[in-house]
Amino acid sequence: MPILVTADALIDGSGAAHRPGALLLDGERIVAVGDRFTAPSGAERVHFDGATILPGLIDCHVHLSDAGLPDATVQDRDPPALRTLRIAEHARRTLAAGFTTVRDVGGRDHLEFGFRRAVAEGLARAPRLVLAGKVISITTAGASAWQGMYREADGAPEVVKAVREQVAAGADVIKLMATGAVLSPGHERPGSAQLTAAELRAAVETAHTLGRRVAAHAHGIEGIRRAVDARVDTIEHGTHLHEDRAVARAMAERGVFLVPTLKTLAGIAEGPGVPEEIAAKARDRRADRDASFRTALEERVPIAMGTDAATPFNRHGENAQELAIMVELGMTPMAAILATTAVAGRAIGREDIGVLAGGKLADLAVWRGDPLADVRILERPPLAVFLGGTRIV
Q1: Which of 311, 326, 202, 200 is nearest to 259 (CA)?
Q2: Domains in the chain, start-ordered, CATH in brackets?
Q3: Per-residue pLDDT tens for 366-380?
Q4: What is the pLDDT of residue 186?
């Protein structure tokens, strides 16, 4: 049965706002979008007074397997059944918050692939899942801090094998560690390059040959530069991008997306119980984070929203807090919404989501109020969430 959904306003993901807003759904697809139109005979009608309809939100950087605890290592001994149930709960919270798609860029022991199968069999509900499997890294201390998340590989042949392993396991995207990480043990430096230029090129060529996009974790400028030169599709974090505007311009010219994960550093730097050696690394990089985001805006780098949900005090279901930080650092509310819808869809290679238009998948969410006046309303529970035309909330 067709469904006509109406509200005071509709933001369609193209940069346009319809006032009032209406869209017609039939099955899992959108039929039409506009200010108002007559529903076909027999259509169900759903109206939301004082509300705004948006495309379902997209988070391009999460880790569903982890809970945002101060010290991730406390979960290392958890049995697989507990970890899988944790994935299910985090997915449920995220969907209930209006996020209809997430890209998980590092799970634990490939449990996320089994969970996706459970969702397909109707045993659980979740956003659409774009999964990376294990992150591919040089031999590093980070693997001991995030057990089951890393696939260590040294040299181009071993990196190629690691990429193929993730694809064979079910990966939709490949995650490469171009630099060290903030949450790795204290002697690992986030700014230091890790995978070599040759290793990155080999990984990207293999992934693209197999039809998979590539995300590169990269804080330091040399790692960012190597990853961009290797033709990755997204740069995760990009903390020191401001140190070389030529790299930012190259990203803009080549269509390499920045996923800035702005909210993660605050929880690491300020949260109680975070190991001091890790908290110090986060505190040292907050000014760089802000400067690099502004550099990306100025150089017109395409920016897609990602939270790094699962880092300390960065909880699943609170993903929309990222948008307010983007606005604080210079984005307009509309640009922040686009970064979380249409741009995010392009960043993860999904042109069928992130936009409310005829023929697109009917993923949408409705919030009371006007997010163009106050983007923080998206942090509240939505009035409704539709996934593939089915009302979930």
Answers
A1: 326
A2: 3-56+352-391 (2.30.40.10), 57-319 (3.20.20.140)
A3: 999 999 999 999 999
A4: 64
